[in-house]
Amino acid sequence: MPAPDHLQPKEYNMENPEKEGLVSRFPKRKFFSEKSNRPTVRNLLFTGTGSEFFGIWIINLLLTVCTFGIYSAWAKVRTINYFYGNTSLDGSSFSFVANPVAILKGRIIAFALFGLYTYFQAVEPVVSLLIMLAVFPLIPLLVVRSMRFRMQNTEYRGLKFNFIGRVGHAYSIFFGGVILTYISFGILFPWWDCQKKQYLLGNLKYGSTRFESFPRTGAFYRCAGICILMGFGMTFLMILLAMAAKPLLGESGFIAVILFLYLSMGIMWAYWHVCTTNHVMESTNLPGVSFGSRMTTSGFVALWVVNIILLVFTLGLATPWVMVRNARYRVNCTTVLAEDLDSFIEGQIERTSALGEELGETIDLDIGI
Amino acid sequence: MIGEAKGKYVTAGSSRAVDARMVFSGKELSVVDESGEKLVTAPLAEVKISSRLGSVPRILSFPDQSGFETRENDIVDEWLRSTGKPRSLVSLLEGKLRYALVGAVLTVLLAWGFVSYGIPPLAKVVAHQLPDDFLDSTSEFSLEVLDRLVLEPSEFTEDRKNEIGQLVGRSFPQLSASSYQLVFRRGADLGANAFALPDGVIVFTDELIELLESDAEMLAVFAHEYGHVVERHSLRQILQDSAITVLSFLIIGEATDTLQESLNALPAVFMHDAYSREFELEADDYAFQMLSEAGLSPDSLGDALRRLSEEHGGDEGLKYFSSHPPFEDRIRRAAEASR
Questions:
Q1: Lowest mean pLDDT among B11-15, B54-58, B87-91
Q2: CB distance A65–B114 less than 8 Å?
Q3: How far are the Cα atoms of A89, A159, B256, B294 from residue B12, in angstroms, in the given order?
Q4: Cβ separation of A344 and B13 shorter than 8 Å?
Q5: 3-state secondary structure of B17
Q6: Do residues A144 and A170 touch, judged by C-beta distance below 8 A?
Q7: What is the ipTM for the molecules in this complex?
Q8: Distance CA A295, CA A106 (A)
Q9: In what order do the strands lie in the sheet with B28-33?
C-alpha cells in the first residue's frame, strides 16, 4: 500500500540543497508553527545526569550480583529505558518496552554457549574452534534479529520502530563484503562500510514509514583518504619523537612512543568514526524529517580520553557518568529538522525473540550505528 | 483529588501529540485538552503505567491504545499510592542518594570480598571436581610450544638424569611414580628455572641444576613444583581469571565501546598476578611440608631461592605487577618454617 500523500518525500525548496548548510541556517530553538510545512529544527535534548543514573546503576549491579545474574535482564531494560526516556524530541521521549523475560532467555542461551566455548578451550581446543565455526555463519542472521528486537521494542509517541532488512541481504553484505574487502587488500573497505550503514539504516521503519538512507561511497573514500594522510603524518611525527626521546629519556622514551602510538591510532579511529557518522546521519531521513550530525574529532577524542581517565582512576565506579557523557555528547551533536512529527501512523510488526541481541553481545558483535 | 499532571497526549495509532493535562477522580483517570474537552477516560486499574525510573517521564497507556506522557512522576506516584499501590522497592532504592551510597559501598565490598575470598575457594573446589586429565592435552601443547620457541634439548647424560630421578624417588617414597614426570631441558634465554605443567610434567633446566649446590636444594625446588601440580594451580588460575573477566564485563562492560574495550581486560591482568603470587606461596607451603616429612629442612628451599635471586639479579619491577612474591619474603618464610 503506498503511503498517503502527506508522507511522500518532499523536495526542499531551499537555496542550498546541502542538508548540512540547511541545518546550520536554523537557530537551535523551537518553532511554534507546527502546521506549516517549512522544516523547523526540533528540540532534541538529553536530560539524564550521572548522579541520578548512578543510583540506578548501582542498584542494578547489586541486585544482579545477589540474584546470580538473573536480575541483569531487568537491569538491562531499566538502563536502556533511562537513556531512551531521557532523550526527548519535540517534547516527547523515547521508551524501551522489551519484556525482560525474553532477554533473560536469550542471556541464558548465550551464557551456556560461552561457557561451553570456554570449557572446551581449556580441555579440547579443537571443540571450541568447532563451536566458533558453528556460530560464525550465524552472525548476519544474529545482526538482523538483534536489530529487529531492539527496534520493535523502541517507541516514540506510542509508535514502534521496526527493522525490515532481509536476512539474505545481510548475508551478502556481511559475508560477501568481507570477502571482497580481503581480496582487494582493504581497498574496498570504505565501500563495504558504506553498504553496511545503508543496509542498517535504510531498513528502519518508524510506524509504517520507512527511513531512507543514501550515504555516498565517495564520502567514505574521502574520510579514508584523510585518515591515511593523518597516518603518514603521525608516523613521521613518531619517528621524530623517537629520535628526540631516545637520548633524553632512554628506556622510558620507549614507553612515551608506545603511548603516542596508542593515542595516534585513537585519533585516526576517532576521525574515521566522526567523519563517516556525520555523513551517514546527514544522508538519512524519514520523509519530511532530516538529520544533522556535528561531531568533531577533537570533541570525540576529548570525550574518549576523559572517559578512560575517569574509568581507570575510579576503578570503574565512574561508569554511570561515562555512559551519560557518551549519550549527552551524541544527542548534543545531533539535530533533527522536521516539517511535521504528528502524521506518522502505526505499522504491522511480527515479534522477534531476544536471542539475536544477546548472542550478538556475547560474541562481541559490533553493529555500530 | 490531589493535583493534576501536565503532559502530552498521543492519539491511538498515530504520532500526533497535543499538550494536555491528566486528572484523577479517585477511581478514573481522564485526559483533558487545553480547551477543557475530555480526550479519554479509563479506570486506573485498566491503565498501564510504566514503572518509576528516576526522572524519566512516565508513559500511561489507555485501553484504547492512546497514551499520555508526563514528567510529573510524584503526582502519578501519589495517585497510585492512594489506590494502594506503593512505589516499587527497586525504584525507591534507585531514587534515594543515601541508599545509592549504601548500595555503592555494599557493591564494592561484595565485589572485593568475592574477588579475594569468594573466587579462590570456589575455583579450588571446582578444580578438584574436574577430572585429573582435564588439562593434559593443553599441557602437551604448552611444552611443544616452549620447546619450539625457547627451550633447547638438555645436555645432561641419561645417567645424570636417571640419578636425579632416583634421588627424587628415594627422598619422597610416598609419591606414586605416575603422579609426576621429570623432564630436562636447556633453559637458554630462560636461564636457571623450573616449572610444572598441569599434567604433572616438571621441567628442570640444566642451568638450574648447575646453579644449585646440594641435593636438598634440588629436592626443595622439586617439592615446590610438585605443590603446583597437586594443588592444581594452572587450572585454578584459568578459572579465576575467567571469573574476573566476567565480573569486569558486568561492572564496566556497558561503559566501554569499541575503542575502550581493552579496559575490560585490565582487572584480569591485575588479578592474574595477584592470584599467581598466592599460588607461589601456597606451593612454598606445600614444599615446606614435604621437606619436613622427608626429614629435610624447609630452609633448603630458602637456600635455593637465595641462589636464584642472585642469579636473576634480585627483584625487578613493581611489586603489584609481578607474578612471584619478592624473593626476600619467600626466603624469610622458609626460615620461619624451619624453626
A1: B87-91
A2: yes
A3: 19, 9, 38, 85
A4: no
A5: strand
A6: yes
A7: 0.71
A8: 34
A9: B38-43, B28-33, B17-24, B4-10, B67-70, B58-61, B48-49
Task: Dig out the grid coordinates for B42 from the structure.
Answer: 479509563
CA-based nearest distance B160→chain A, Å: 35
Q: Inter-chain contact A343–B15, Cβ cutoff 8 Å?
A: yes
Give the cell for residue A342. 504528528
Q: Tell me the sheet residues that pair with B33.
A: B20
Chain A to chain B Cβ contacts (< 8 Å): 160
Cell of B248: 569486569
Domain with CATH 2.30.29.30 in chain B: 4-87
Residue B308 CB-density burial (10 A; 0-12 exposed, 13-18 middle, 19+ buried): buried
Residue showing cell 605443590 = B227
CB of B114 within 8 Å of a chain A CB? The answer is yes
Residue B43: count of CB within 10 angstroms of its CB: 12
B45, B27 Cβ separation under 8 angstroms:
no
pTM comes to 0.74
Measure the CA–CA gap between B333 and A317, rounded to whole angstroms: 37
pLDDT in tens, B141-185: 888 888 888 888 888 888 888 888 888 888 888 888 788 888 888
pLDDT tens-digit series, residues B228-268: 888 888 888 888 888 888 877 777 766 655 555 667 777 78
> Domain B4-87: which CATH class?
mainly beta
pLDDT at position A366 is 35
